[in-house]
Write a sequence for this structure.
């Protein structure tokens, strides 16, 4: 992919910004958290946990680090930000460096329970009481009847064919790999611009549509839009980008007619699982809450619990529902979504993004989320729920 070019005058004027940005990019490429957070022995520990009648805490193993965390920290804080004359840009890069440094601490402490949990809190926060109330509100609705659309009958190979056909409407290449070490059925790796499909998963019609809108329609769109920016921080991610990016991705499911009450309930269980961490619940306690109290089947309950407890306590999953609420509110106000698709960006930095676009240091992303053009949701229950989230 060709590097986006800046006008020579801008290159000279912002030479120090570009130099720091390029150096940060070389450092950050090695620290994608999702490469390290997913256990290597999930199936074995799941079997052991079920055999123990849900009492023995799983003992998860994680990939080894491929970088020196201390050295990386030192290199992050060696940047001479005082050389950036523009105060807005200087402040932005300071916040970016703190964000990346926190991410390194997260990765460094994976598996060392409390230390990882507190580092995770710094990056992803913990559910607010409103989030928990929203989750419980959603879980009060009666389950929808199962339809043929929900039957898991497609192989990973069929999923690959489906995603390839779906991506033909988008003007970027789609790389697909099969993987055994991911917790989701499919996910995008930002650094390699690849869609990973879980090797032993089965997919329903609805799930394929959901994943296509979520992973290709938003996550790959923002990956490629980030690559098209003159500054690499758009590609590597601005602070607090997860809530906005996941909110956009789930909103894309809604607009594309893929979102279901079952999916909203899944996001609600994730909030309750994250909340249980802050209350000091063990893996078995969280599983008991989701499986025995809320009656979710044991395989789904294990997955929800694993996602929250991996690494020692990972609160990222609490952000999907709050992100959806924020993006839906924006949609109701008829505010544009495109500024949020310029890369891995956050609602919190919209002012800075607009400022950089005025300077010529950022551009509109070349790719759009196609589901945002037309609302295809026909389920009035979902509209009622989204209109009543606090």
């Amino acid at each position: 992919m060709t590097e986006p070019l800046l006008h020579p005058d801008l290159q000279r004027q912002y030479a120090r910004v570009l130099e720091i940005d390029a150096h940060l990019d070389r450092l950050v490429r090695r620290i994608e958290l999702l490469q390290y957070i997913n256990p290597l022995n999930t199936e074995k520990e799941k079997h052991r946990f079920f055999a123990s009648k849900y009492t023995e805490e799983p003992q998860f193993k994680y990939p080894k680090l491929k970088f020196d965390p201390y050295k990386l920290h030192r290199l992050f804080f060696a940047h001479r930000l005082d050389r950036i004359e523009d105060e807005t840009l200087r402040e932005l890069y300071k916040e970016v460096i703190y964000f990346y440094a926190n991410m390194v601490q997260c990765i460094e402490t994976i598996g060392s329970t409390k230390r990882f949990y507190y580092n995770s809190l710094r990056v992803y926060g913990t559910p607010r009481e409103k989030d928990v109330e929203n989750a419980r509100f959603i879980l009060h609705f009666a389950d929808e009847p199962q339809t043929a659309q929900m039957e898991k009958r497609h192989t990973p190979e069929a999923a690959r064919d489906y995603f390839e056909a779906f991506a033909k409407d988008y003007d970027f290449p789609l790389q697909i790999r099969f993987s055994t070490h991911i917790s989701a059925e499919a996910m995008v790796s930002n650094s390699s611009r690849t869609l990973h499909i879980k090797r032993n998963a089965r997919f329903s019609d609805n799930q394929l549509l959901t994943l296509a809108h979520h992973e290709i329609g938003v996550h790959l769109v923002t990956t490629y839009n980030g690559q098209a920016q003159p500054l690499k921080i758009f590609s590597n991610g601005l602070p607090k980008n997860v809530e906005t990016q996941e909110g956009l991705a789930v909103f894309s499911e809604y607009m594309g007619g893929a979102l279901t009450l079952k999916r909203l309930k899944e996001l609600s269980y994730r909030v309750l699982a994250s909340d249980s961490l802050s209350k000091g619940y063990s893996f078995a306690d969280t599983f008991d809450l989701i499986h025995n109290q809320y009656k979710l089947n044991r395989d789904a309950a294990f997955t929800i619990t694993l996602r929250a407890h991996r690494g020692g306590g990972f609160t990222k999953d609490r952000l999907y529902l709050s992100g959806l609420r924020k993006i839906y509110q924006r949609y109701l106000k008829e505010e544009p979504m495109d500024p949020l698709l310029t890369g891995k960006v956050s609602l919190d930095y919209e002012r800075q993004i607009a400022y950089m676009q005025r300077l010529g240091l950022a551009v509109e992303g070349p790719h759009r989320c196609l589901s945002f053009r037309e609302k295809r949701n026909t389920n009035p229950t979902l509209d009622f729920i989204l209109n009543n989230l606090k």
